[in-house]
């Protein structure tokens, strides 16, 4: 009986909103195609249930890329790794736009996040010293943590060592390079707390350690901006 109700629900959706239903079905097929493609290429990529790709997904490098359940890639995302030990981990129910990841160690994105066209990297790629072209020292590498239900807006830069607390909003063009509390709006370069997130609990003092990643979630977000 539940199976019959499930089928009737799909049929009802097909007739009430055929365009959206077909678009979702095609995105699911594309998600499965990317799974098979990267498996055949030997890339260390895996995704959970209901993985959808509306745009493009370009996975490169020797590291591991892991997407949770109900992840949707709606534009052209590039999760790139640069070492065998590198890990990019994206939680459940995450919307990914034209987001570029550069990972040498670890980047973790919590559940229910929205990632617009932005750059998230855990390495500087080059030394900052004046002899950067000849120095034998490695560039700075520090893991990045993004909490749950975080909105990363367009042209944001998330740099090595950044930790962004749950429910926070990183505004257009901001550059994050340190630890930030949950439930705040960040703005500027370098990013600073501008205001609390409306309707969220009062921001807490930042303490050592990564922000928590909650499994509970608000209504599913649908738009990146």
Which tags fit this structure?
alpha/beta, UDP N-Acetylglucosamine Acyltransferase, domain 1, 7-stranded parallel sheet, 2 helices, 28% strand, disordered N terminus
Task: Tell me what the structure shows.
This protein has 225 residues and is α/β, with parallel strands linked by helices. The protein has one domain (2-196): UDP N-Acetylglucosamine Acyltransferase, domain 1. The protein is 17% helix and 28% strand. It has helices spanning 2-16, 18-40, and strands at residues 44-47, 52-53, 56-57, 64-67, 72-73, 76-81, 87-90, 95-96, 100-103, 106-109, 114-115, 119-121, 144-146, 151-152, 157-158, 163-164, 169-170, 175-176, 179-180, 184-187, 192-196. The strands form three sheets. Strands 2-5-8-11-14-17-20-21 form an eight-stranded mixed sheet. It has a seven-stranded parallel sheet with strand order 1-4-7-10-13-16-19. Strands 3-6-9-12-15-18 form a six-stranded parallel sheet, with no helix packed on it. β20 (184-187) and β21 (192-196) form a beta hairpin. The longest helix has 23 residues, at 18-40. The protein is flat.
Summarize the structure.
The chain has 225 residues and is an alpha/beta fold.
